[in-house]
Amino acid sequence: MASGPVNASCAAPDHRGLWSRRGAILGTLGVMGSMAHPGLAHAGGQLEEPLADAVRSALSSAISNQAPPVPEFASTEARLAYLRWLGAMSDRLRPKKPEWSVRREFLETVWYESKRAGLDTALVLGLIQVESNFRKFAVSPVGARGYTQVMPFWTRVLGDGDPGKLFHMQTNLRFGCVILRHYLDRERGDLFMGLGRYNGSRGKALYPDAVLGARRRWELTA
After folding, report:
1. 94-133: per-residue pLDDT in tens?
2. Tally of domains in the chain
3. Which pLDDT value is given to residue 103?
């Protein structure tokens, strides 16, 4: 599995509308739609596809590694950068998670799991906003579960077959990040197509535009 961060250079060409004004508008509408129906999640659903044995083994290994989300830093500068990120994201997330200890644990885990999967943390937070609006026990009309709206079949394919574990915070975030990394690798880094595959709507603009629109809220600006 690739471990490099996802960035704008991986995005689809402009004709797909990812960086257009239309994309920003659709992103806002998608997020507003999920907020307007608090009992449902925005997700479509990942499609179960055959996996090569090597791919299945690699994904299962990525899921099963239970290292705790404890930040480790190579330098003081890196630690300070993380603390700045944590403070900024905490302020933005407060309306959804008012309790500091809950908010901190969630953000620490998002940071850890996104970095572990080679994903941009703002992208992952944008995906969570669109998928579940930061609701731990969200369930979509097609049965996707939790923060990142993982389809239950993934626990059978990669885990022990217990879909109830998808409501555990770290388990859900790990599954979501590993699956998104897998889909981006399948699409050779193409955000538009990878996000569409994650949602089960590959090739359609609504979902990628919604996630990329939401991503802007979670970007750390200087």
Report:
1. 999 999 999 999 999 999 999 989 999 999 999 999 999 9
2. 1
3. 97
Which residue segment(s) compose the domain that 124 sits in? Answer: 14-46+53-218
1 lies in a domain? no
| Terminal Cα-to-Cα distance of the chain (whole angstroms) | 31
Residues 128 and 147 sit within 8 Å (Cβ to Cβ): yes
Question: The CATH number of the domain where 138 resides is what?
Answer: 1.10.530
Asked if residue 6 belongs to a domain, the reply is no
Residue 198 has pLDDT above 80, yes or no: yes
**SS3 per residue for the chain:** CCCCCCCHHHCCCHHHCCCCHHHHHHHHHHHHHHHHCCCCCCCCCCCCCCCCHHHHHHHHHHHHCCCCCCCCCCCHHHHHHHHHHHHHHHHHHCCCCCCHHHHHHHHHHHHHHHHHCCCCHHHHHHHHHHHHCCCCCCECCCCCECCCCECCHHHHHHCCCCHHHHHCHHHHHHHHHHHHHHHHHHCCCCHHHHHHHHHCCCCCCHHHHHHHHHHHHHCCCC
Q: How far is CA 24 from CA 47, 85, 198, 217, in A?
A: 26, 23, 20, 11
pLDDT value of position 216: 97
